Amino acid sequence: MTEHILRMSGITKTFPGVKALQDVNLAVRRGEIHAICGENGAGKSTLMKVLSGVYPHGQYDGEITFEGRRCEFGGIRDSEHAGIVIIHQELALCPQLSIAENIYLGNERAARGVIDWNRTNYEAGELLKRVGLRENPTTTVSDIGVGKQQLVEIAKALSKEVKLLILDEPTAALNDEDSAHLLDLLRGLRDEGITCVIISHKLNEVIAIADSVTILRDGQTIETLDMAVDGVTEDRIISGMVGRALDNRFPPRTPAIGEEAFRIEDWTVYSPSQPGRKVVDGASLTLRRGEIVGLAGLMGAGRTELAMSVFGRTYGVHISGSIFKDGRPIEIRTVQDAIKHGVAYATEDRKRYGLNLIEDIKRNISAAWLKGLSRRGWVNEYEEYRVAQQFRASMNIKAPSVDSVVGKLSGGNQQKVVLSKWILTEPDVLILDEPTRGIDVGAKYEIYTIINRLAEQGKAVLVISSELPELLGLCDRIYTLSEGRVTGEVPREEATQERLMYFMTKGQE
Amino acid sequence: MSSITPADVEVGAKGGGGAPGRPGRVSLGGLSLNLRSSGIYIAFALIIVLFSVLTDGALLQPQNISNIIVQNSYILILAIGMILIIIAGHIDLSVGSVVAVTGGLSAVLMVNMGMPWPVALLITIAAGALIGAWQGYWIAYFGIPAFIVTLAGMLLFRALTLTVLGNQGIGPFPDQVRTLANGFTDGWLGNIGLGPLGGADLFSLLVGIVAIAGMVLAQWRSRSARKGYGQAVDPLALFVLKMAAGAALILFLVVQLARFKNLPWVLVLLAVLVLAYSLMANRTVFGRQVYAIGGNLHAAVMSGVKVKSVVFWIFVNMGVLSAIAGVIFAGRLNQAGPTAGNSFELDAIAAAFIGGAAVQGGVGKVVGAITGGLIMAVINNGMSLIGSPSERVMLVKGAVLLAAVAFDVWTKRRAGTAR
């Protein structure tokens, strides 16, 4: 019998009208890496919030036993005191403070209220060595990348004498290299005796790192699998998450590719924050009607920057290069120009750039096409409603009505609203930036179906994605971007993950 | 009296015909759903009832109603401009000073220079627009936070006021301007007897009836159109109830005013402004873009909203409305003074927030801001009627502002945890 460091049994948590967790059980063995998998809305984050005291004792039913003691946490402080530290998906660092200040925030190295800076910086330096981050502890956090910030979060957790470390989607924002480093670090921590619970959508990582995996679905525990014993595969986990075997993650499609629709040539963009740095360097791309083209690249390769600079110069300075639509040169200086020329861009960060979260579905869908729904400046609200209803049906947006506030929808449904908004502008060219980021497996399939439908209608689609299997499953042709330059163009037949990765890392020595 | 009956009969007939089905559940759901947005109107009604009782009915006497409207008209006009700015996620601290400087300018033009009043009024409004453009430029195109720009404006335009006025009050104003600010419509059609209520101005009553008919017709047409598009509408019984309540409110107001001295001109002006700006906010592309900017600035940019231009123009608009308020305020006092408009900005901002605007922007209604302004007006008026000292009035107004925003934050948090 192995010893369990944590046992959560019969956890039930209800919100008004919704049962988020129903009789959930979780048992984590000491010194293992335990993954929790489930679709969005399955209850993973809620479960972790119960564990860490965000929902204090009394707001849920069930029992938590940690290190053999029953726990009744009244808040995060209590759980941290017991040695449970949670690192959220959205990092909770203060960007203007130094690494050391962040590590000891709320836990200052001080004597009689006066901070001992030498000790702070020295001990922070030791922690940074432990997590393998070669940065000066006095460096400001906003000056280091997301991958390194994640390491700072872990260093912060280590400073609190953590026994159980919970990571919520730790690699969601990281490139492959940083992800690999992070996973190595977790293995190292496990060897030091720190137990980890990791929530992840990236099943290949789960397979690579976890010792056991618990699958949640609809607020209930489906099963806990031991990786060593059960011979777990990605498909095995997916079938547990969605409750059905998923034979094909991508809907079938027969491409019908036509004339050239959109071309950019020698596109160069400079960084607005670091003068003189080329973020996109002489990039040229061609999209054809009815074609789904992929754009692959590691974090920082300039994918989003390329897309946004094309889309009405919403990113970058000193932009040069030419754009052709249907073979004729066009100028896109503003977002209005882009919409006028039939170019749409669905952002990777829908909460920040894509949606007005406090507004309802219909007004979000109409936001980029008010001109088309209005006459002499007056919006035709009935037409707006009708159009929104149409999209709700055709895109299968799950909401009580088009008057529902967008902020309350799930990620997948929010993404469908973003897509509806841009499809309404009747574009010929759609640039979809990470169209399936942070949405669950079932909804991904629906998004893929929508993308296929757009291509069938003769539109040119450019899909930017960090998930290579997604690009391989979806695209007719894939461009690779590395350090702002187009380093490869691979047709579907020749595309493999290895080949793409080779081009994506080209010139990075 | 005879003109009122048809509306009554019609209302009754619809109510009789629309009862079947399951209106209870739907209307109940509708009512409970809208608690957050309708809370302000319920609160307003309760405050009126409270002060009616406390003042033994003096609050709702014809002359007092007229006073409340005339004494607060300029704040309400400012609140209309302010709510747009707050919806867009900005703030304007300078409106009090702009009221003073435009009032002063109009006095110089009309009194010192003897310019014809319509010309002077137009020049003053243009000056207001120019002031708005000045602030809008720094905020929208130069990128300085509105808080700073308008804080500077508060000082700048107060200084300009003192310069323009030479540090003294200027008056008296031409009669026409005083009438606009303080006077009443003429009794063109003479008086009519209303039985026990005494005589009342027929013209005012007719205006009221036309307003009611217009409201019912517009709402009915909108409802039919919605139904035509398969949209959910209030059940008929609830619709009739709402219309009846609205009609009763307008009728009561008009009858009381007609019994006193006809309609105040500023009420006519206010009604036109409220109607126009409500339509603008809800139904025009420009209005939608204001909400989009306040709701999520980045998303608005990425949706092709010309954010800078929209922000610029709402400040120009604020300048115009401030100029109108400035002339009305000066005309009412019959003098433009160096301290005019002191702390008006705070009243206008408070009206917007009491009226349901969100601190982060993106939320708010013109009618809400007007209601917020009226809540403060009624508190002011009611408390002075019962002889409360001014410090207590201030105390209550502060508490009401805090409570209103606390309620807003609380309902939002509840909605948040229910996710």
UniProtKB/TrEMBL annotation, chain A:
Its main location: membrane. Gene3D superfamilies: P-loop containing nucleotide triphosphate hydrolases. Residues 6-241, 262-508 form the ABC transporter domain. The keyword Repeat applies. It is found in: Cell membrane. InterPro entries: AAA+_ATPase, ABC_carbohydrate_import_ATPase, ABC_transporter-like_ATP-bd, ABC_transporter-like_CS, L-arabinose_ABC_transporter, P-loop_NTPase. SUPFAM superfamilies: P-loop containing nucleoside triphosphate hydrolases. It comes from the Bacteria. The keyword Cell membrane applies. One of its GO terms (cellular component) is plasma membrane. One of its GO terms (molecular function) is ATP hydrolysis activity. Keywords: ATP-binding, Cell membrane, Membrane, Nucleotide-binding, Repeat, Sugar transport, Translocase, Transport. It is a peripheral membrane protein. NCBIfam families: GguA. PANTHER family: CARBOHYDRATE TRANSPORT ATP-BINDING PROTEIN MG119-RELATED, XYLOSE IMPORT ATP-BINDING PROTEIN XYLG. This is Monosaccharide ABC transporter ATP-binding protein, CUT2 family. It comes from Microbispora rosea. The lineage of its organism: Bacteria, Bacillati, Actinomycetota, Actinomycetes, Streptosporangiales.
UniProtKB/TrEMBL annotation, chain B:
CDD domains: TM_PBP1_transp_AraH_like. GO terms for cellular component: plasma membrane. Keywords: Cell inner membrane, Cell membrane, Membrane, Sugar transport, Transmembrane, Transmembrane helix, Transport. The chain crosses the membrane at residues 40-60, 72-91, 103-131, 138-157, 202-220, 232-257, 263-280, 310-331, 343-359. It is a multi-pass membrane protein. Part of the binding-protein-dependent transport system for D-xylose. Probably responsible for the translocation of the substrate across the membrane. This is Xylose transport system permease protein XylH. It comes from Microbispora rosea. The lineage of its organism: Bacteria, Bacillati, Actinomycetota, Actinomycetes, Streptosporangiales.
